[in-house]
Amino acid sequence: MPRSDGREPGQLRPVSFVPDVAPHAAGSVLVSFGNTRVICAATVQEDIPRWMKAQSVAGGWVTAEYSMLPYSTPDRKTRDIARGKLDGRSSEIQRLIGRALRAVTDLKKLGPRTVWVDCDVLQADGGTRTASITGGCVALAIALNGLIGAGGVSEFPLTQLVAAVSAGVWEGSPVLDLDYPEDRDAAVDFNVVMTEDGNFVELQGSGEENVFTAAEMEAMLMLSRTGIEELVGKQREAILSAGKTTEETLTFLGSNLGTS
Ligand code: UDP
Questions:
Q1: What are phi and psi of 29, to 5 degrees?
Q2: Which residues approach ligand 1 with their CB closer than 6 A?
Q3: Does residue 3 lie in a domain region?
Q4: What atom in ligand 1 is closest to the CA of residue 126?
Q5: How far apart are CA 231 and CA 242, in angstroms?
């Protein structure tokens, strides 16, 4: 059965990055995967978490927060602050984003500082966590480029780029980058987080009132790998388009050019 927007099974939604949407942040980007739009902004705090000080852990920290704006969904979503507690889903997602970003960060090169990556969903249409990771990595890279420019950091602290995409089994076929109606109807839903060298950081996959075969899983991972290669190319363009690119950042982007 054809997809509602006419996409091929392995085709991403139109993906775009608009850098510097939040000028007070050290790095920011508005990332869109079709109608899913997330503001990702990185800010730098010249301090490290208390547990790192207590345990004399060298280096810095990268962490993330995730939230859906009240008007990001068709029915208004109550702010967590109004409910008095963090939504369990948001908590799970922000930890996933933080792990993905730390997997590609050399925390020692970052030095004794914390980078907060805030992901706020402007419009939700499926795949907000994967868009957050993909945009969050761009915001982080732009912030780190700024830190190098300001002389706070001498070597680029990212080892490579990380991106994420969803895949699922929908109407009996493996498809890439599900929108909300596809996500709702999918028998299986995977969120795949992968580095630009093609290694996995995290896989979240489950059958929804369903099971999946090893062959279906393999097919979903193949689609995801191709999608992530495409996303990494777009991330690189977005980081460069933010401007004021330092030699260190160029070397980082350039040295990885042949690997994706
Ligand atoms: N969604 C929603 N309200 C919520 C949670 C989710 O409308 O409180 C919708 C939204 O479009 C989201 C989709 O359901 O993108 C899928 O949610 P899921 O928890 O699978 O996370 P996501 O796919 O966004 O990472």
A1: -155, 145
A2: 73, 77, 89, 124-129, 180, 183
A3: no
A4: 15
A5: 17
- β-sheet bridge partners, residue 170: 173
Tell me the per-residue pLDDT of 68-99, one tens digit each, with 9 for 90 and over.
999 999 999 999 999 999 999 999 999 999 99
Q: Look at ligand 1, atom 23, and give the residue with the nearest C-alpha.
A: 127
Range of the domain at 130: 15-257
Q: What is the mean pLDDT of residues 109-133?
A: 98
Specify which residues 68 forms β-bridges with: 121
Give, rounded to a whole angstrom, the gap between the first and last alpha carbons of the chain: 31
Q: Ligand 1 centroid vs 23 CA: distance in angstroms? A: 28
Q: How far is the CA of 120 from the centre of ligand 1 (A)?
A: 13
pLDDT at 258 over 60: no
Helix (H) / strand (E) containing 83: helix 80-83
Q: Classify residue 223: in a domain, yes or no.
A: yes
Amino acid code (one letter) for 161: L
Name the token pair of 255: 């040295």
Within a domain: residue 175? yes
CA atoms of 113 and 32, how far apart (whole Å):
29
Q: Which amino acid is at 229?
A: E
> Does any domain span residue 9?
no
Whichever domain contains 133, its CATH number is 3.30.230.70
Structure confidence at residue 152 as a pLDDT band (50, 70, 90): confident
Distance (Å, rounded) from C-alpha 68 to C-alpha 253?
A: 31
Residue with CA nearest ligand 1 atom 24: 128
What's the rounded Cα separation, in Å, for the pair 246 and 156? 10
Q: How many CB atoms lie within 10 A of CB 51?
A: 9
Domain count within the chain:
1
